[in-house]
Write a structure and sequence with these properties.
Chain lengths: 199, 198
């Protein structure tokens, strides 16, 4: 019995110590990691989906912008503003979709004057190479440029997006996420513009 | 001096992955560039050295029957630290190494040295042992990565070596090339060692 007690005590002690140290390291690295992800993962996508700007949308990003409040949940986003001569022309933000294998991290850009998509990029995914993974290719993502809300659907449902052959689920996942993002924008447009106008 | 010997054996006599034939998976996978080899080597060295120190410090407290579980806890903690620090300050390296960073936990060199050495020796010796094997591993990976990068991509640490008209020998940066390069390096090391002994 003493032997088992000792085993339990030692394992527990090491686990607790490990947890403490790691939570400390995590706290210390949280902000640098967020900045690095912004710079290397989201940054290129942000600049790719916005079209009319002469500012630095990444530097001028706004965190934790509250877009909607529901009974139990709050929708907040990080917004990247596109400005021409100091005037807001567009906004980019991330939406999450459900692919065939896992979640899809998607960046969309919207022209706030004409309320159309300026671009879409799939940033992170775990889709099948050669099939769903082709969502990152220009032949797929270029279809999203210039679309209005009603055009954002697969072509066999009246929309303008041709699905990737052999990757219907991935294509649907992207379309659904982008459409929801566009709806969110249309519902909270004023909130977004107010948040980005300050500073 | 014993401590110095424990350090230098990891640099040639016992060098992973050639003499101490462990840690081959990351060796083959991340050495498509010298940067990748160097980064992985240094990350592994950090984990190996720290885990050797801690296992040695705790060697009289850890019950034999749960020792492997304890070692893995310790090793995994240091790997998470490396992962977080790499993400925070060396993100491009983290993107390159990808899944092989968390896989450092199951790098046999680390568990191997913990079980074979650090669990039975004093802290200073274990530190030297870990540091020596880690730096040897780093040298091996960097050289292998450099060879594969020079011939497979025409660059070294990202800088062009042969100029713009070089046709890369793409075989080198693919898996078969890794095995062939590894074998050739091992053969070369054997020739050198044989020369010394005779």
């Amino acid at each position: 019995m003493r032997e088992i007690t000792r085993m339990i005590v030692v394992l527990t002690a090491i686990s607790v110590a490990s947890g403490l140290v790691l939570s400390f390291v995590d706290k210390f690295t949280k902000d640098p990691i967020e900045y690095q992800k912004l710079k290397f993962v989201k940054g290129p996508a942000v600049l790719a989906v916005l079209t009319d700007y002469d500012n630095d949308p990444i530097k001028e990003y706004k965190k934790n912008v509250i877009l909607e409040k529901k009974e139990n949940s709050v929708i907040t986003k990080i917004l990247f503003p596109a400005k021409r001569k100091g005037k807001l022309t567009g906004v980019a933000f991330e939406v999450t979709g459900q692919g065939y294998h896992g979640s899809l991290g998607i960046m969309i850009g919207i022209d706030i004057q004409r309320n159309i998509l300026t671009g879409m990029r799939v940033m992170t995914h775990s889709e099948t190479p050669g099939l769903g993974a082709r969502a990152v290719e220009p032949s797929f993502y270029s279809q999203f440029s210039g679309l209005r809300i009603d055009d954002i659907a697969l072509s066999d449902r009246g929309g303008k997006i041709n699905a990737i052959s052999g990757a219907t689920m991935t294509s649907q996942g992207v379309v659904k996420a982008v459409k929801e993002g566009m709806h969110l924008y249309l519902r909270s447009r004023k909130k977004m513009i107010d948040a980005l106008k300050t500073g | 001096m014993r401590v110095l010997q424990d350090f230098t054996k990891g640099l040639w006599k016992d060098i992973p992955p050639f003499r101490l034939v462990l840690g081959l998976c990351p060796t083959l996978a991340v050495t498509t560039s010298a940067d990748g080899g160097l980064g992985m080597g240094l990350a592994t060295t950090f984990v190996l050295t720290c885990s050797n120190i801690l296992v040695s410090l705790l060697r009289n407290l850890i019950p034999r029957k749960v020792r492997i579980a304890c070692y893995i806890l310790v090793i995994a903690s240091f790997v998470v630290i490396v992962e977080l620090v790499m993400q925070a300050f060396f993100y491009p390296l983290y993107m390159f190494l990808g899944i092989f960073v968390p896989l450092i936990v199951v790098n046999c060199i680390i568990l191997g040295r913990a079980e074979a050495f650090a669990s039975k020796r004093p802290v200073l010796n274990s530190l030297a042992d870990g540091l020596g094997h880690g730096l040897g591993f780093t040298m091996a990976l960097t050289v292998l990565g450099a060879i594969r990068e020079i011939f497979g991509a025409g660059t070294l640490f990202g800088h062009s070596v042969f100029g713009p008209h070089f046709a890369p020998f793409a075989f080198m940066v693919k898996p078969p090339g890794a095995f062939v390069c590894l074998g050739l390096m091992l053969g070369a090391m054997n020739i050198v060692s044989r020369g010394r002994v005779d």
